[in-house]
Amino acid sequence: xxxxxxxxxxxxxxxxxxxxxxxxGHISETAATTNTVSFTGEGKVTATPDIAVIDASxxxxxxxxxxxxxxxxxxxxxxxxxxxxxxxxxxxxxxSGYNIYPQSGTRPCPVNSGMMYPCTQTQQxxxxxxxxxxxxxxxxxxxxxxxxxxxxSAGANQVNNLGxxxxxxxxxxxxxRQKAIDAAKAKATELEKQVGISLGKIVDFSENxxxxxxxxxxxxxxxxxxxxxxxxxSTGTNDITDNVTITYQIK
Length: 251
Prior knowledge:
Number of helices: 5
Order of helices and strands: HEEHEEHEHEEHE
Helix content: 25-40%
Number of strands: 8
Radius of gyration: 35 Å
Protein backbone atom coordinates (compact mmCIF):
# COMPACT_ATOMS: atom_id res chain seq x y z
CA UNK A 1 0.00 0.00 0.00
CA UNK A 2 1.41 3.36 -0.96
CA UNK A 3 2.28 5.96 1.62
CA UNK A 4 -0.27 8.52 0.25
CA UNK A 5 -3.08 6.02 0.82
CA UNK A 6 -1.82 5.34 4.35
CA UNK A 7 -1.70 9.06 5.14
CA UNK A 8 -5.16 9.58 3.67
CA UNK A 9 -6.56 6.72 5.72
CA UNK A 10 -4.92 8.05 8.89
CA UNK A 11 -6.33 11.55 8.32
CA UNK A 12 -9.80 10.15 7.65
CA UNK A 13 -9.62 8.06 10.83
CA UNK A 14 -8.58 11.11 12.87
CA UNK A 15 -11.43 13.21 11.44
CA UNK A 16 -13.92 10.44 12.17
CA UNK A 17 -12.63 10.07 15.74
CA UNK A 18 -12.88 13.81 16.31
CA UNK A 19 -16.43 13.81 14.94
CA UNK A 20 -17.42 10.96 17.26
CA UNK A 21 -15.92 12.73 20.28
CA UNK A 22 -17.81 15.95 19.48
CA UNK A 23 -21.05 14.04 18.91
CA UNK A 24 -20.68 12.09 22.15
CA GLY A 25 -19.93 15.33 24.04
CA HIS A 26 -23.00 16.95 22.55
CA ILE A 27 -25.17 13.99 23.49
CA SER A 28 -23.76 14.03 27.03
CA GLU A 29 -24.32 17.76 27.38
CA THR A 30 -27.85 17.47 25.99
CA ALA A 31 -28.65 14.70 28.43
CA ALA A 32 -27.26 16.70 31.33
CA THR A 33 -29.34 19.77 30.51
CA THR A 34 -32.45 17.82 29.53
CA ASN A 35 -32.71 15.93 32.83
CA THR A 36 -33.55 18.97 34.91
CA VAL A 37 -36.19 20.09 37.35
CA SER A 38 -37.19 23.65 38.30
CA PHE A 39 -38.49 25.12 41.54
CA THR A 40 -40.10 28.48 42.18
CA GLY A 41 -40.03 30.56 45.34
CA GLU A 42 -41.63 33.81 46.46
CA GLY A 43 -40.36 36.25 49.04
CA LYS A 44 -42.18 39.25 50.49
CA VAL A 45 -41.12 42.01 52.85
CA THR A 46 -43.64 44.45 54.30
CA ALA A 47 -42.44 47.91 55.24
CA THR A 48 -43.90 51.26 56.26
CA PRO A 49 -43.28 54.23 53.90
CA ASP A 50 -40.68 56.61 55.27
CA ILE A 51 -40.98 59.55 52.88
CA ALA A 52 -43.73 61.62 51.27
CA VAL A 53 -43.37 63.24 47.85
CA ILE A 54 -45.67 66.18 47.10
CA ASP A 55 -46.26 67.63 43.62
CA ALA A 56 -47.40 71.25 43.88
CA SER A 57 -47.68 74.17 41.47
CA UNK A 58 -47.93 77.96 41.56
CA UNK A 59 -50.07 79.32 38.73
CA UNK A 60 -50.35 83.07 38.07
CA UNK A 61 -51.98 85.01 35.26
CA UNK A 62 -51.59 88.61 34.11
CA UNK A 63 -51.98 90.79 31.04
CA UNK A 64 -48.25 90.67 30.21
CA UNK A 65 -45.68 87.95 30.81
CA UNK A 66 -43.39 90.05 33.04
CA UNK A 67 -46.16 90.82 35.50
CA UNK A 68 -47.19 87.17 35.58
CA UNK A 69 -43.59 86.07 36.22
CA UNK A 70 -43.07 88.69 38.93
CA UNK A 71 -46.22 87.56 40.73
CA UNK A 72 -45.13 83.94 40.40
CA UNK A 73 -41.66 84.72 41.78
CA UNK A 74 -43.17 86.45 44.82
CA UNK A 75 -45.35 83.41 45.60
CA UNK A 76 -42.44 81.06 44.91
CA UNK A 77 -40.30 82.82 47.52
CA UNK A 78 -43.15 82.62 50.03
CA UNK A 79 -43.50 78.87 49.39
CA UNK A 80 -39.75 78.27 49.74
CA UNK A 81 -39.59 80.32 52.96
CA UNK A 82 -42.47 78.31 54.41
CA UNK A 83 -40.79 75.00 53.55
CA UNK A 84 -37.55 76.15 55.19
CA UNK A 85 -39.50 77.00 58.34
CA UNK A 86 -40.78 73.40 58.29
CA UNK A 87 -37.13 72.22 58.29
CA UNK A 88 -37.23 70.94 54.72
CA UNK A 89 -33.77 71.13 53.12
CA UNK A 90 -33.06 72.71 49.76
CA UNK A 91 -32.03 69.30 48.39
CA UNK A 92 -35.61 68.13 48.97
CA UNK A 93 -37.18 71.10 47.12
CA UNK A 94 -36.89 70.65 43.36
CA UNK A 95 -38.37 72.78 40.60
CA SER A 96 -39.82 70.16 38.28
CA GLY A 97 -41.28 72.51 35.65
CA TYR A 98 -41.58 76.15 34.60
CA ASN A 99 -43.87 77.20 31.76
CA ILE A 100 -45.25 80.42 30.26
CA TYR A 101 -48.48 80.05 28.31
CA PRO A 102 -50.02 82.83 26.23
CA GLN A 103 -53.77 83.11 26.79
CA SER A 104 -55.92 83.86 23.76
CA GLY A 105 -59.42 85.15 23.25
CA THR A 106 -61.72 86.29 20.48
CA ARG A 107 -61.53 89.90 19.29
CA PRO A 108 -65.08 91.34 19.41
CA CYS A 109 -66.63 92.77 16.27
CA PRO A 110 -66.75 96.58 16.12
CA VAL A 111 -70.12 98.14 16.71
CA ASN A 112 -71.24 99.40 13.32
CA SER A 113 -74.91 99.34 12.46
CA GLY A 114 -74.15 100.19 8.84
CA MET A 115 -72.32 96.91 8.14
CA MET A 116 -74.05 94.72 5.57
CA TYR A 117 -72.12 91.53 6.47
CA PRO A 118 -71.04 90.12 9.87
CA CYS A 119 -67.38 90.68 10.66
CA THR A 120 -64.87 87.80 10.95
CA GLN A 121 -63.86 87.30 14.57
CA THR A 122 -60.11 86.83 15.10
CA GLN A 123 -58.03 85.35 17.92
CA GLN A 124 -55.75 87.60 19.96
CA UNK A 125 -53.44 87.21 22.95
CA UNK A 126 -55.29 88.42 26.04
CA UNK A 127 -52.68 87.60 28.70
CA UNK A 128 -50.07 85.18 29.97
CA UNK A 129 -50.15 82.33 32.47
CA UNK A 130 -47.01 81.26 34.34
CA UNK A 131 -46.84 77.85 36.00
CA UNK A 132 -43.98 76.72 38.26
CA UNK A 133 -44.10 73.13 39.57
CA UNK A 134 -42.32 71.69 42.59
CA UNK A 135 -41.44 68.21 43.80
CA UNK A 136 -41.13 68.33 47.58
CA UNK A 137 -39.86 65.50 49.79
CA UNK A 138 -41.11 65.43 53.37
CA UNK A 139 -39.05 63.10 55.55
CA UNK A 140 -41.00 63.68 58.76
CA UNK A 141 -44.35 62.07 57.96
CA UNK A 142 -45.96 63.72 60.98
CA UNK A 143 -45.61 67.06 59.14
CA UNK A 144 -47.27 66.03 55.86
CA UNK A 145 -50.72 67.40 56.70
CA UNK A 146 -49.32 70.72 57.97
CA UNK A 147 -47.07 71.07 54.91
CA UNK A 148 -49.99 70.48 52.54
CA UNK A 149 -52.06 73.10 54.33
CA UNK A 150 -49.19 75.59 54.53
CA UNK A 151 -48.29 75.25 50.85
CA UNK A 152 -51.73 76.52 49.87
CA SER A 153 -51.59 79.39 52.35
CA ALA A 154 -48.14 80.36 51.02
CA GLY A 155 -49.35 80.55 47.41
CA ALA A 156 -49.31 77.06 45.86
CA ASN A 157 -52.77 77.05 44.31
CA GLN A 158 -52.44 73.52 42.88
CA VAL A 159 -51.45 70.49 44.97
CA ASN A 160 -51.65 67.66 42.47
CA ASN A 161 -50.39 64.45 44.06
CA LEU A 162 -49.04 62.98 47.25
CA GLY A 163 -46.96 59.80 47.07
CA UNK A 164 -45.95 57.77 50.11
CA UNK A 165 -42.78 55.85 49.33
CA UNK A 166 -39.87 53.85 50.69
CA UNK A 167 -36.84 55.96 49.86
CA UNK A 168 -34.19 53.20 49.75
CA UNK A 169 -35.88 49.90 48.84
CA UNK A 170 -32.72 48.06 47.66
CA UNK A 171 -31.96 46.47 51.03
CA UNK A 172 -35.57 45.36 51.41
CA UNK A 173 -35.55 43.99 47.85
CA UNK A 174 -32.45 41.93 48.72
CA UNK A 175 -34.26 40.52 51.76
CA UNK A 176 -37.25 39.56 49.60
CA ARG A 177 -34.92 37.89 47.07
CA GLN A 178 -33.20 35.85 49.78
CA LYS A 179 -36.57 34.69 51.10
CA ALA A 180 -37.58 33.64 47.58
CA ILE A 181 -34.32 31.70 47.07
CA ASP A 182 -34.71 29.96 50.43
CA ALA A 183 -38.28 28.99 49.53
CA ALA A 184 -37.21 27.50 46.18
CA LYS A 185 -34.33 25.57 47.74
CA ALA A 186 -36.64 24.23 50.47
CA LYS A 187 -38.94 22.84 47.75
CA ALA A 188 -35.93 21.18 46.07
CA THR A 189 -34.83 19.53 49.34
CA GLU A 190 -38.36 18.32 50.02
CA LEU A 191 -38.69 16.76 46.54
CA GLU A 192 -35.36 14.95 46.95
CA LYS A 193 -36.73 13.29 50.08
CA GLN A 194 -40.18 12.54 48.66
CA VAL A 195 -39.15 11.17 45.26
CA GLY A 196 -35.71 9.84 46.14
CA ILE A 197 -33.82 11.74 43.48
CA SER A 198 -30.46 13.43 43.78
CA LEU A 199 -30.08 16.96 42.51
CA GLY A 200 -26.86 18.26 41.02
CA LYS A 201 -25.64 21.76 40.22
CA ILE A 202 -27.86 24.74 39.40
CA VAL A 203 -28.02 25.23 35.63
CA ASP A 204 -30.43 28.16 35.39
CA PHE A 205 -31.78 31.00 37.54
CA SER A 206 -34.40 33.63 36.77
CA GLU A 207 -35.90 36.41 38.84
CA ASN A 208 -39.01 38.55 38.65
CA UNK A 209 -38.98 41.49 41.02
CA UNK A 210 -42.41 42.62 42.01
CA UNK A 211 -43.08 46.27 42.64
CA UNK A 212 -44.41 47.78 45.80
CA UNK A 213 -47.56 49.88 45.50
CA UNK A 214 -47.21 53.59 46.12
CA UNK A 215 -50.51 55.09 47.33
CA UNK A 216 -51.31 58.28 45.42
CA UNK A 217 -53.84 60.80 46.66
CA UNK A 218 -55.15 63.26 44.07
CA UNK A 219 -55.41 66.58 45.85
CA UNK A 220 -56.81 69.80 44.47
CA UNK A 221 -56.32 72.76 46.75
CA UNK A 222 -59.63 74.43 45.94
CA UNK A 223 -61.68 71.25 45.87
CA UNK A 224 -60.28 70.05 49.19
CA UNK A 225 -60.79 73.44 50.79
CA UNK A 226 -57.33 73.31 52.34
CA UNK A 227 -56.18 76.25 54.35
CA UNK A 228 -57.75 75.18 57.61
CA UNK A 229 -55.79 72.22 58.88
CA UNK A 230 -55.00 70.02 55.86
CA UNK A 231 -56.17 66.50 55.09
CA UNK A 232 -55.62 63.45 57.29
CA UNK A 233 -52.95 61.14 55.84
CA SER A 234 -52.60 57.42 56.59
CA THR A 235 -49.23 55.88 55.69
CA GLY A 236 -50.28 52.21 55.56
CA THR A 237 -47.68 49.65 54.46
CA ASN A 238 -45.99 48.66 51.20
CA ASP A 239 -45.15 45.12 50.06
CA ILE A 240 -41.88 44.41 48.28
CA THR A 241 -41.98 41.03 46.52
CA ASP A 242 -39.53 38.87 44.60
CA ASN A 243 -40.11 35.64 42.64
CA VAL A 244 -37.29 33.32 41.54
CA THR A 245 -37.03 30.09 39.54
CA ILE A 246 -34.05 27.76 40.16
CA THR A 247 -33.31 24.88 37.78
CA TYR A 248 -31.22 21.89 38.93
CA GLN A 249 -29.64 18.99 37.09
CA ILE A 250 -30.91 15.55 38.10
CA LYS A 251 -27.94 13.27 38.81
